[in-house]
Amino acid sequence: MTLEIFEELIKIECEKSFADLKDGRRKLKFDKKIKTNSMIDVVFLNRDNPCRFHQSCTITFGNVLEKTAMNYAERMDAKVFRNKNLLASNIDVLFKINRMIYLLESKVNIELDNEKSRKALESLKRKGTIVFNALRCQDEGWQVISKFVVWTKEDALEASTTAKKPIDVRNLMGFKDFFMLFGVNITKQEFFNMLQKVWVEEVEAYL
């Protein structure tokens, strides 16, 4: 039942985020930004390049998941913090359950090289400190849990097999871990089937 809630919310977010795809504005804007930054751009020069346009849509879909995670947390009665630019630090997902503050960096891919992994982890830890101080967690007796939530991996262990050091299982959360925060147990097949269904109906139908 609660996966249906997530599906409902992700469709609502798709309506907003892909409005320019459905009315054709995204394609017109995209065609005006033709660049030769990669070999793919070169081989498709002066021709329609479906690769870059599809990539643009998958990036937007990742952003949709981030926004949906916040909306879902709120629907499930968590206290969400909408002002995510705390002290000029851009934060993806931030909510409180009981006395735990969850600071989540939304990822569809955690397969970063070692240097990018190091910088991403340093950024996550820095944001955790900012949130702890900004929300006066010490005074309130709240604990901050900072993790990367990886929507393409079932749990932290699976995500850790792809992540590079210094990121390890302690810094990770899969989609199943996310739903378990709200007492919801789902399978990989259920979640992936739902995502594919939404993609086909809300995005692919307009490509």
- Shape verdict: globular
What is the total tally of β strands?
Answer: 7
Q: Describe the strand arrangement of the main beta sheet, using strand numbers.
A: 1-4-5-6-7
Q: Which ranges are low-confidence, i.e. pLDDT below 50, for 5 or more consecutive residues?
A: none
From the alpha-carbon coordinates, what is the Rg to the nearest angstrom?
Answer: 18 Å
Number of domains: 2
Count of helical regions: 10
Which oligomeric form is depicted?
A: single chain
Instruction: Please outline the major beta sheet.
Output: 5 strands, mixed
Helix share bin: 40-55%
Structural class: alpha/beta
**Separation of the first and last Cα atoms:** 30 Å
Strand content: 5-15%
Query: What average pLDDT do the residues reach?
Result: 91
Return the string of H and E elements. Answer: HHHHHEEEEEHHEHEHH
Q: What would a concise description of this structure say?
A:
With 207 residues, this protein is α/β, with parallel strands linked by helices.
